[in-house]
Write a structure and sequence with these properties.
The protein has 10 helices and no strands. By secondary structure, it is an all-alpha fold. α2 runs antiparallel to α4, α4 runs antiparallel to α7 and α6 packs antiparallel against α7. The relative contact order is 0.16.
Length: about 250
């Protein structure tokens, strides 16, 4: 039996978001404290997963890994110390995702990948431009991850995998509103038509990424009971909810 999880990114600005990034920093600090007190899942239970699901997890594990130095540098250059500190804690959570996925793969007897072509291309695109563009590209990855981890949480029968997926989902549902808040500020100086163009291009990028991931991970998605079409539709729904948060309504 799996634990029920929220089904969407919130479609309104989260309560307390008007506290600014000092409030977000406290949220990340509190989550770090809770994570430390809770400790890790019991990796000794082992995990039993189909080969196609393991291959998908290997690729997502590569995507979660990384030191985040470029994003941290851009956040520090933005001049908001609380935001920069919160970004550092966000990166720490992402690295913890990579660590947990690595340990889950180890519990299933599967090796880690050194790299994957899709992650390499995505990371280079993110690093190429400024903070706004990096966050927009990062948000593509975040909403795709919500779709995949949601499918994993719903579809797996392995208790350890279900627990790990639930933890990753809970973190990602906090990350998306955090990035939306910064994007809302970053896009505010642009006139309305320009913002609509930016968000329209972002939606197109999400749709393209969802289709590529659905094709690349189709066997795993079918095994998890989601299927390609449902996965793409769910990712697009997550993107629409995130866009509402960026607009601030």
């Amino acid at each position: 039996m799996t634990t029920e999880m929220p089904t969407r990114v919130p479609t309104r600005v989260p309560a307390g978001d008007d506290r600014g990034f000092a409030g977000w920093l406290r949220d990340f600090e509190e989550e770090a404290r809770v994570r430390e007190e809770r400790g890790d899942p019991d990796w000794g239970r082992g995990a039993r997963l189909e080969a196609c699901v393991l291959r998908s997890l290997q690729r997502f594990q590569v995507g979660e890994d990384g030191d985040g130095a470029f994003l941290i540098g851009k956040a520090e250059a933005a001049g908001d110390a609380a935001y920069a500190a919160a970004v550092r804690l966000f990166i720490a959570e992402e690295r913890n995702h990579a660590r947990m996925l690595g340990l889950l793969l180890g519990a299933a007897g599967a090796p880690l990948l050194d790299h994957h072509w899709s992650d390499a291309i995505f990371v280079r695109a993110r690093r190429a431009l400024g903070l706004r563009v990096e966050l927009l590209m990062l948000m593509v990855a975040e909403v795709v991850a919500l779709g995949f981890y949601g499918a994993l949480h719903r579809g797996t029968r392995d208790p350890l995998t279900s627990e790990v997926a639930a933890r990753l989902l809970a973190d990602e549902r906090r990350h998306v509103p955090f990035h939306c808040r910064r994007l809302r500020e970053g896009l505010a100086p642009f006139p309305g038509p320009a913002r609509r163009v930016v968000t329209g291009l972002w939606r197109a990028a999400v749709a393209a990424a969802a289709v590529v991931v659905a094709a690349d991970h189709g066997r795993a998605l079918r095994r998890l009971g989601t299927g390609r079409r449902r996965f793409v539709l769910e990712v697009l729904a997550e993107a629409r909810a995130a866009e509402v948060l960026v607009r601030g309504r």
